[in-house]
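Entry 0007
Protein: Response regulator transcription factor
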Amino acid sequence: MPAPIRVLLADDHTLVRRGVRLILDGEPDLEVVAEAADGAEAVALARSREVDLAVLDIAMPRTTGLQAARELSRRLPDLRILILTRYDNEQYFFEALKAGAGGHVLKSVADRDLVEACRAAVRDEPFIYPGAERALVRSYLERLQGGDRLPERPVTEREEEILKLVAEGHTSKEIGELLFISAKTVERHRANLLQKLGVRDRLELTRYAIRAGLIEP
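Output (structure tokens):
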């Protein structure tokens, strides 16, 4: 038999990781070889261990699954990636694809879809969970008829990093130390975020971060 697919699993909830690992390790062609509790740890493990596939939760501390996927796609272009999410939202599907993932899997039906999604990702085939195809095609056609383009990311990657940390309650000084930039630069990015997103304060930024899957409610 060929060697099993080596999987890196990242989720900040230990019980979720345990459940997903049971699903994957129960298949003869899949083996979880590394676990991470956040996106930054996932990136470090992927660079130090031999893995074929990274399964990343979309909302994790420090670095989200989407942020980790973007970095891994740049640094390890042969690594296949899947995003795990609680959110049945077409925006996350498109964001996952743009971040370099092969698709995203709903946690609520991971026991049904995750194994096939892993196999599809390793075959370099996009995975669309059952039931999503009609909604995605209908939304796409409606956008075309309305003269709209596909959804764009409203913020830059740096702004997204700062938005996540602001929503987690970090001060400008703390964010600057984490990202190796000045507190003044953080404040400038924060002001840009408020203007770009049309919000007034940290509370509304936090609500946006929750809707965008950067942090969990």
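Curator remark: The longest strand covers residues 30-36. The mean pLDDT is 86.
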